[in-house]
Amino acid sequence: MNLAILGATGSIGSSTLDVVARHRDRYQVFALSAQNSAEALLALCRVHRPRYAVLAGLRPDAKLAADFRSHGTELLFGAEALEQVATDSRCDVAMAAIVGAAGLASTLAAARAGKRVLLANKEALVMAGPLLMRAAREGAATIVPVDSEHNAVFQCLSDAKAVRRIVLTASGGPFRAAPLESLDAVTPAQACAHPTWVMGRKISVDSATMMNKGLEVIEARWLFDLPAAAIEVVIHPQSIVHSLVEYVDGSLIAQLSNPDMRVPIAYALGYPERIASGAQPLDLTAMKQLTFERPDERRFPCLRLAYRALERGGTAPALLNAANEVAVDAFLAGRLPFTSIARVIADTLEAVPAAEASDLGAVMAADREARRAAAACVLAVAA
Description:
This protein is an alpha/beta fold. The protein is about 45% helix and about 15% strand. The chain has 15 helices and eleven strands. The strands form two sheets. Strands 4-3-2-1-5-6-7 form a seven-stranded parallel beta sheet, sandwiched between helices. Strands 9-8-10-11 form a four-stranded mixed beta sheet, covered by helices on one side. It is globular.
């Protein structure tokens, strides 16, 4: 089975390659991509020998192309090349692991081409859920979620018609119990110090604000065709129960494992079979307790904003996602206080009206408008 990993140099890409290396008889790495990290991508190509590599953020460079060619890999440049490898007739599976709006077009293309899409890029569904699900239906693609929470729900759905609600769990991030008055002084290093998961900087900040969970609520609405009222979020600091499904008879089915992304990745790769992931098995006798609590809206206003955007519909979730990306980038650059991330998002949602998400052009136009408005909000807060 030929596999394209879009976003190979990130944590999801690394975990995917670890699982693939355990099953070389089943999987062949067909293509690997990165944004600008040429050296990191070349190092992966030396080991995995893909047919293609893509540097989506760089212009053609003859010397770089020759370096990759010396290891048997053809190097492609530009965002369009992501769609080229994702839709290639020789590619069977596309791991969509590019963070943010940058991963939308290639994910849509893979779905239209009828690939098995391993969806780690939640923003694709947040920005264009109806478009992506329609593309998957029309292209006869299979979408298997990779986010640990959605993957858990996917595994627990024994009878979709009898589902009363799904429960997405959240660790609560590093500031779950911090005094509210201390959050103004949070630094990027503190926000990126996730207590249970190893993630990139942007996603770590999203976890600290719980916007990550808000985006996952929107993702779940489209993946599982459920209204917002049937999608609940609870804080579970141990990150052992990854999500739960409640049925109309009052029973709950949960998926448990150690917090290791190789577990959902292996499930997605092998689906409908199960394959070894390399993760440490869960020792039930070693667990002291499993606790659950409701999110505090004062501490996590971003979660409320995500539900609001989902209820507004149309391009509102795309506006939310764009504003969040701009605000988090400003925070990581030291230009915005941690507690102002939610303010920038809220102000952007007020400033930019939602429109119908009729096609990819409308979604991307909303994304651009929201980014301009959010940048202005950042400047206003900093003034």
